[in-house]
Amino acid sequence: MRDTVLWRKQSHIIMMLADVLKVDAEQALDLFYSTKTYQLLSDPKSGLQLMSDQYIVDDLLMELKADHTFLVSKSTKVER
């Protein structure tokens, strides 16, 4: 995936994450960069770049919830 396309994809994912978690974009960016999902998204061999943005956001939410890095409110639904 071209760098500019990946950058746009990551930007969209970060904004979606901020919206779901009700945090500002800077906090969402910090959370995003601290995840294994970000590392996988940066590696074209993982195949994660081919998944939808919503799928990746759902993965991020599950990872954050599992790691207790950020407590996701009970009203947040993680559906697939």
Helical segment count: 4
Beta-strand portion reads under 5%
Number of strands: 0
Percent in helix: 55-70%
**Rg from alpha-carbon coordinates:** 12 Å
Mean pLDDT: 87
Protein architecture, described:
This protein is mostly helical. The protein has one domain (3-67). It is 62% helix and 0% strand. It has helices spanning 3-21, 25-33, 36-42, 53-67. Helix 1 crosses helix 2 (25-33) and helix 1 crosses helix 4. The protein starts with a helix and ends in a 13-residue tail after the last helix. This is DUF3791 domain-containing protein.
Could you outline the blueprint of secondary structure elements for this entry?
Blueprint (H helix, E strand, L loop, with lengths): L2 H19 L3 H9 L2 H7 L10 H15 L13
List keywords for this structure.
80 residues; DUF3791 domain-containing protein; mainly alpha; 4 helices
Short description:
With 80 residues, this protein is mainly α.
